[in-house]
Amino acid sequence: MSQTISAHVSDQNHGHVDQEGLKTLGFWIFLVTDCLLFATFFAAYAVLRTHTEGGFSAKDFNVPNFIIETFILLTSSFTSGLAVLSMHKGNKKGLIRWLIITLLLGAAFVGLEVKEFADLAAEGATISRSAFLTSFFALVGTHGAHVTFGIFWMIGILFQLSKRGITPVTTRKVSLVSLYWHFLDAVWIFILTVVYLMGVM
Amino acid sequence: MNKWIQTAKLSLLAFLGTALLSGCDRSKFIVLDPRGPVGKQEYNLIILSVILCAIIIIPVIGIFTYIVLKYRDKPNNKAPYQPEWDDNKFLEIIWWGIPIIIVAILGVFTAKTTMNLTKPPVKDVDPIVVQVTSLDWKWMFTYPDKKIATVNYAEIPAGVPVQFILTSDAPMNSFWVPQLGGQEYTMPGMSMGLWLQADKVGEYFGSGANFTGKGFAHMQFRVKAVKQEEFNKWAKQVQKDSPVLTKAGYKKLSKPSLEKELSFSSYPIGLFEDIVNKNGGIYYDHMNHMGDHTTMSDMNMKK
Amino acid sequence: MDNSHFFVTGDPMIYGADVSIILVSLAIIIYLTYFKKWGWLWREWITTVDHKKIGIMYLLSSLLMLFRGGVDAVLMRIQLAVPNSHFLASEHYNEIFTTHGTIMILFMAMPFMFALFNMVVPLQIGARDVAYPFLNAVSFWLFFLGAMLLNISFVIGGSPNAGWLSYAPLSENDFSPGPGQNFWIWGIQISGIGSLMTGINFVVTILKMRTPTMRLRDMPLFSWSVLASSIAILGVFPIFTATLAMLTIDRLLGGHFFTMTGGGNPMMWVNLIWMWGHPEVYIVVLPAFGVFSEIVATFSKKRIFGYASMVFSMIAISIVSYYTWVHHFFTMGAGANVNIVFAICTMIIAIPTGVKVFNWLFTMYRGRIRITQPMLWFMAFVPCFLVGGATGVMLAAAPADYQYHNSYFLIAHFHQVLIGGVVFGYLAGMYYWFPKIFGIKLNERLGKWAFWTWQIGFYVCFMPQYALGFMGMTRRMYTYNSTMGWDMGWAPLNMISTVGAFLMGIGFIFQVWQILYSIKHGERDVTGDAWDGRTLEWSIPSPPPVYNFAILPVVKGRDAWWYQKQEMQKGSYQKEAVKYEPIHMPNNSGIPFLMAVCFFIAGFGFTFEWWWMGIAGLIGVFITLFARSFQYNTDHFISVEEIERTENALRNHGSIHRTAN
Fold first, then answer.
1. Do C264 and A134 make contact, defined as CB atoms within 8 angstroms?
2. Residue of A nearest to B278 (CA)
């Protein structure tokens, strides 16, 4: 095993490893730790799921809302994949177009989530109403914050793309943001299952 | 140089030995002086673990001293020098093996004692129940059979297993009477069971062991073990002479403060259950933990 | 929130601290201005991404924090020296033990560990820097400003006082209102993010940045220990971040994760914080094991015994350490079966740890032992850690733990493993690698004074505490013998323990004196190989040039430098023609510092619930992230001429002319 790892270390760049590859590896490891962060929030949600204090419970979620949210986010994951495909074809315009569509879909998702939260709060189901709601808002909100961060990140990359085109550096950046986006999609599938579907069933 | 390391070490040990022994007679080491079956079982496990650890530590320190003395880097040192010797499967098996055996022995006894402590210490005597609530910064004891309550002291009959049922109406604390046995947490929303028993009549020191803020250091209490008749007499006396603990009275008592020893002739029905439930007790099944093998007829914790 | 108590008032000691803080700050500012050092400070230190300089800054900060935590310890011991003492009030005592624990673990042990990571790992694996030098600087500044955030709490706003792990619900708004607890949350949250990034950084550094000829199975054991520790960091620091975030939500937004009301579950806090907290102690102790492995081999002039089982035992420890957290609360009544499982897992950890001790002993066996300063600390570590480990096994026996839990027996145990294991280990590491990083050997005579006062102080301080545990004394009591007429006989042993604490304090003063004295008068190491070392870091000059290795070293096996020296002696060493190539290095950057300052502002704002300030700080963080993302000019090449110049200067300066591999 040690040999294979050493073999990856290319000596071409004056004894320096490939910087972009290095950053990609680091980002993968970061995603693993981010997974654990979500796992902790999931665990807290699992513990507190029934602690509703007689108020809003998981049965009362707005079904159409989370179905539409899911649909939008899954689509955006698909479009971010299309963006990467365009990039590999060297199609800068296509790349930029698909990225913009992805981030618009992301923004729509966040908008719907904000609306859901606002509706809940208007019903009196606020974060301080019960432990169940605290854990719900924390888990789903952490995901939403991640998506929001991803949107800003993509905007930053779009500027760089339009200025510099498809270079090894921007390629790596687009790959990472797309990886991040798929990761958030996967986390959302868990939220959909554990929070919403198991809640309303 | 090396000689005086040894001398220093020895004199240090001697100093510590005398320091530990002087000024404090053995009876002060209350953990090592148990007065009930629970404390005694724990004491036995402590002694066993000390012996097992000593079996490892003493020879290792011996070997260590020997090696350091023998293989010093001195020009005239005739001891063998093998700079490339770095592997010996046989030796490695020995020192993986010995700790495994020791841990296995200790593990078995730990498991046995852990299981034992979940049962009443003696089988042929009917246990009594004492409910314990830790408050900021005092202890309240309620006796469901006698319908009396006390603060900062508890009386129990000697020779009778006592099922302490613990909760808290304040940050988590820990209920510890070293001479009767080990401690258990008192936690808001939970009711926990702890079996203790005093073999002999006497007064035992108890304290809160888990930090709860400003007045924590003052959360000490007295457990007085008396003969069964005297216990009954004391309960009657309290029922007759002491004031009533009302709902308002409890509310006042539960506010942060320090209190002396108090006695109450009665308390609001279901006080303990209410305390557990209002702090989240409705969300848990109760009494399925250590200290629980009898169903408490007067505990109705399920939703 | 009531902000009328912004400045802590009312205690003469605090006023004294205020005055000394202002005076020291003024002195620093005047010094920097008078000697026109601001530019130097900015260029050479604040913006640096060089792992060696970052390591030095970690080391300095951790020694500073050791001082602060040590003062806390001494204050506590003064208070407890006699019964019914009125030296400190209850709240003040509670604040002091809280900051003592928090600072010693998170702001002393962790940065000391990162100091060793940074100063040693790249040199030991033949790398020119860590995998992400910029991120490394971010980590440092997050740690540093997080630590400062917690530290200012004692003059501004008030210190936290709910214990170093701040058990809920005591740490919730109902029982600990005000900024103190928030300082704790934000201080360790910010530095914790830095620790997580350091973990990622060193995992990748070790896996990817080794000199191409170094196989993992030839890697020095210290680097292995760093890998094991970093992997453990990756596993548990996310839990820590999330758990602190939950407490933040409770305190700032009125949530109910751990409250008594609203259906919250305080036991969940205890579980989550120990899921991080237990592996955390192995995170800090593993590198100490690594340090000792290097030291024992070097000063026994012998290969490390049982290399494979050393590596295996470290990995085993870091994995099993995830499954022991419940032993911190056997008394929570999780049930007999749960207690048994976690008791046995805890005991199992003792097995690989014990094996390591045997392997160290047999590394010395048939070796040639030189008793140098690092070796002295190793020799102190062995008996100390054995006893500490044994009391750990005693504590692991769950029913016996019911009698030790939260008593002074426990206090004595964890100080014995944390001081005897971690602190002795890191100090040994500091003595060992100080000549490498600074080119200066630390004075032997002062070092011995420090060593012996430390050792005697340690045993005098903590052995009585085991006895106090058996006498029923519980931890975190600010006073004793004052209630209900109980006289438990605790006074004499407490007095002895206090004497020991003072001795350790004197030991620390000796060390500071030793370092300052040695910087001025100490013996200079011109060989680059101060101890006749075995691993690659000793093959380059001390202090190493900015790029560490002019040419990446060729490694043929374990202890590469040792065998190269033997070949050189025999004359069989094939010196290849030196042909330098330009070296690719990262540029300095001010962004890490500015990012951490923004984090500090955010943390400070949220601490006082000044939302505008907290949000402004977070926006600042995003701006710095963006600024970094738009930076393309992030590295440069060192030219061949410059390398030649540097190498010639360094190597001609040395009395022994050395080959550059």
1. yes
2. A53
Query: Which one of B286-300, C114-128, C476-490 scores highest in mean pLDDT?
Result: C114-128
Chain C residues with CB inside 8 Å of A157's CB?
629
What is the per-residue pLDDT for B157? 96
**Long-range contacts of B54-62, Cβ-Cβ distance < 8 Å, separation of 24 or more:** B54/C390, B55/B102, B56/B98, B56/B99, B56/B102, B56/C354, B56/C386, B56/C390, B57/C386, B57/C387, B57/C390, B60/C357, B60/C358, B60/C361, B60/C386, B61/C382, B61/C383, B61/C386
Question: Which amino acid does the sequence have at B47?
Answer: I
Instruction: Give the mean model confidence (pLDDT) for residues A80-95.
Output: 94
In chain C, how many domains are there? 2
Higher pLDDT, B22 or C115: C115
| Check: complex ipTM more than 0.90 | yes
Nearest CA in chain C to B115: C336
Determine the pLDDT at residue C424. 97
Q: CA B38, CA B223: separation in Å to the nearest integer?
A: 15
Query: What is the domain-level CATH number for residue B43?
Result: 1.10.287
**pLDDT value for A6:** 36
For the segment C123-163, what is each residue's pLDDT rounded down to a tens digit? 999 999 999 999 999 999 999 999 999 999 988 888 999 99
Is B81 touching A (CB cutoff 8 A)? no
B243 touches chain A (CB under 8 A): no
Q: Which two tokens stand for residue C178?
A: 């005000």
For residues C339 and C254, state if they share a domain: no
| Out of A26, A39, A128, closest to residue C253 by CB | A128
A51 touches B at CB < 8 Å: yes
Is the minimum CB–CB distance between C237 and chain A shorter than 8 Å? yes
- Nearest alpha carbon to residue C222 among C538, C541, C535: C535
Query: Which residue of chain B has the CA closest to C264?
Result: B280
Q: Which chains touch B (3 or more CB pairs under 8 A)?
A: A, C
Domain coverage including residue B39: 29-72+85-118
The verdict on residue B4 lying in a domain is: no
C368 contacts C396 by C-beta, under 8 angstroms: no
- Whether C171 and C100 map to the same domain: the answer is yes
Residue C503 near residue C453, CB atoms below 8 Å: yes
Nearest to B293 by CA among B172, B161, B157: B161
C238/A33 Cβ within 8 A: yes
Q: What is the pLDDT of residues C68-114, one digit of tens each?
A: 999 999 999 999 999 988 899 999 999 999 999 999 999 999 999 99
Contacts C204 to A, Cβ<8 Å: 22, 25-26, 29
Q: Is the pLDDT of residue B26 over 80?
A: no
Tracing tokens 């949350």 back to the chain, one arrives at: C185
Q: Clarify whether residues B170 and B220 are in a common domain.
A: yes
pLDDT higher than 80, residue C7: no
Q: Residue C6: inside a domain, yes or no?
A: yes
Show the domain range for C31. 1-45+52-117+138-264
* Mutant choice from B279, B282, B283 vs A, greatest count of A C-beta within 10 A: B283
Closest CB to C263: pick one of B77, B218, B283: B283
Whether B189 and B260 share a structural domain: yes
Lowest mean pLDDT among B52-61, B62-71, B292-301, C218-227: B292-301
Distance between B254 CA and the closest CA of chain C, angstroms: 13
- Same domain for B257 and B176: yes
Q: Which position has the higher pLDDT, C18 or B39?
A: B39
CATH number for the domain spanning C4: value is 1.20.210.10
CA distance B272 to chain A (A): 20
Q: C448: which DSSP letter?
A: H
Chain A positions touching B280 (Cβ under 8 A) are 51
Return the CATH number at A149. Answer: 1.20.120.80
Number of domains in chain B: 2
